[in-house]
Write a structure and sequence with these properties.
This protein is α/β, with parallel strands linked by helices. Helix content is about 25%, strand content about 35%.
């Protein structure tokens, strides 16, 4: 099955076309605040000589990370599904980072760190080996001090992590890996259930009408 993967959760945005465990084409963009998503999608399809009608699955990186970027990717997937009845899948961008670490020959216990804003970080712990990776501590939001406590003798990885923790290693989630993960199954989801991974409770403030 041809899979179009969108990973917009970090400052390195990527679009890829995969088939099974093979990446057919991929485009990476860094810097700036946005991506001309559809022009990048067309570029990726053209590079692989694939038509839109041949796409059987749209896979989206659900973060955590850039809420705006993730929402943009979800909107594209939802629109595509509505127009062509294409299946959709959502994959944790943190899992994709662990997979990318493995592909870069990093093994052992790794701490995946992602900026959560408000002077906090998302943190998840994986055990990575040649055979694969396994989450051993689920994603949570922690203060910088907790990340630093791991930095002394542990492997820190994540998008732009060296900005805060120089001893870490910058690893970004890649669309090509999202597609490969989706091909393994277990990530299919209804389009109305696609939501960014966001551990904080969403707070809505109801407007009070002015009188007089």
């Amino acid at each position: 099955m041809m899979t179009l993967a969108l990973e917009f959760s970090s400052s390195q945005r990527s679009v890829a076309l995969t088939k099974g465990d093979t990446a057919l084409s991929e485009t990476l963009e860094a810097g700036g605040r946005g991506t001309a998503a559809f022009s990048v999608i067309e570029k990726v399809l053209a590079a692989a000589k694939i038509e839109r009608e041949q796409i059987g699955l749209i896979c989206v990186g659900l973060g955590p990370g850039s809420y705006t970027g993730i929402r943009a990717a979800i909107s594209i997937a939802q629109g595509w599904q509505l127009a062509r009845q294409t299946r959709v899948a959502g994959v944790s961008s943190v899992e994709a980072i662990a997979a990318q670490a493995q592909s870069e020959n990093i093994s052992g216990k790794i701490h995946v760190v992602v900026d959560a804003q408000r002077s906090e970080f998302y943190l998840a712990v994986f055990e990575v080996s040649e055979k694969g990776w396994n989450e051993i501590e689920p994603l949570k939001i922690v203060p910088p001090a907790e990340v630093r406590s791991h930095a002394k003798d542990k492997i820190l990885v994540g998008p732009g992590v060296t900005k805060w923790f120089p001893e870490g290693r910058d690893i970004f989630p890649r669309a090509s890996l999202l597609g490969r993960l989706a091909a393994k199954g277990g990530h299919a989801i209804a389009t109305d259930k696609l939501e960014p991974i966001y551990l904080r409770e969403t707070t809505f403030v109801k407007a009070v009408p002015l009188i007089g």
